[in-house]
């Protein structure tokens, strides 16, 4: 069955559920001392069905992030997802850049020079964030903090629009604030405005350290598929 707008009741229920979860996240941001004007919510649709992009766009959540190139390409072509601004938030292989070029609004995981060069070749003037491994965990992507300035300069020399930095908090359950504070200090030194840091479990710490973009999957879309 559908309502007078032609939208099915099941889809309306999905939208309402997503609205409530988004409001809960926004309340967490405010309670942590942040503001909704400063800190944006990026919905992470990793492993979710393609239809989730249209549901998010329908409630005005148009900034969505994908970890896998093939999922981003597939979801970007879905009806109802035309207004979505896609963010690439997972590791990117150089040979995947060609397919992603023109679809990605913000490349958040630029962590090495050869990747930056490939993006500049396939997607000139693209907007990027430099990913920094601020916890020094060997299994993580991201350049070393001491290499961030050089990589930022390299991206700028290639004509890429470097908007800021991105990091992932510690995976061992330790206090994430030192890692986020480190990223903020690097960004301030390089005069970069955007700080993409904080996820469902550590967004409060990220907000306190000045995050401008929270990447949220589970807290928005739940452990089950919408």
Per CATH, which architecture?
Alpha-Beta Barrel
What is the helix/strand order?
HEHEHEHEHEHEHEHEH
CATH level 3 topology? TIM Barrel
Q: What is the arithmetic mean of pLDDT?
A: 94
Number of domains: 1
The proportion of strand residues reads 15-25%
- State the end-to-end distance: 18 Å
| Major beta sheet, strand line-up | 7-6-5-4-3-2-1-8
Structural class of the helix and strand makeup? alpha/beta
The named CATH superfamily: Alanine racemase
The total of helices stands at 9
Number of E-type strands: 8
Low-pLDDT ranges: none
Helix content class: 25-40%
Report the major sheet: 8 strands, parallel
Gross geometry: globular
- What's the gyration radius in Å? 17 Å
CATH class: Alpha Beta
Question: How do you describe this structure in short?
Answer:
The chain is α/β, with parallel strands linked by helices. The protein has 9 helices and 8 strands.
Plain-language structure description:
With 226 residues, this protein is of the alpha/beta class. 40% of the residues are buried. The model has no long low-confidence stretch (mean pLDDT 94). The protein has a single domain (9-221), classed as Alanine racemase (TIM Barrel, Alpha-Beta Barrel), CATH 3.20.20.10. It is built from nine helices and eight strands. The chain is globular. Strands 7-6-5-4-3-2-1-8 form an eight-stranded parallel sheet.
């Amino acid at each position: 069955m559908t309502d007078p707008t032609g939208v099915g009741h099941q889809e309306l229920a999905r939208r309402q559920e997503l609205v409530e979860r988004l409001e809960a996240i926004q309340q967490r941001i405010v309670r942590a001392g942040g503001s909704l004007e400063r800190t944006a919510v990026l919905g992470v649709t990793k492993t979710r069905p393609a239809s989730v992009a249209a549901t998010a766009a329908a409630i005005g959540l148009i900034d969505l992030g994908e970890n896998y190139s093939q999922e981003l390409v597939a979801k970007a072509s879905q009806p109802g997802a035309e207004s979505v601004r896609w963010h690439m938030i997972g590791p990117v292989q150089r040979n995947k850049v060609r397919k992603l070029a023109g679809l990605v609004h913000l490349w958040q995981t630029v962590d090495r020079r050869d990747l930056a060069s490939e993006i500049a070749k396939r997607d000139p003037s693209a907007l990027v964030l430099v990913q920094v491994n601020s916890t020094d965990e060997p299994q993580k992507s991201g350049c070393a903090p001491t290499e961030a300035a050089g990589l930022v300069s390299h991206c700028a020399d290639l004509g890429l629009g470097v908007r800021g930095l991105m990091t992932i908090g510690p995976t061992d359950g330790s206090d994430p604030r030192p890692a986020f504070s480190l990223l903020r200090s690097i960004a301030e030194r390089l005069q970069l405005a955007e700080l993409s840091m904080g996820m469902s479990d550590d967004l409060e710490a990220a907000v306190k350290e000045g995050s401008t973009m929270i990447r949220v999957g589970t807290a928005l879309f739940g452990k089950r598929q919408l």
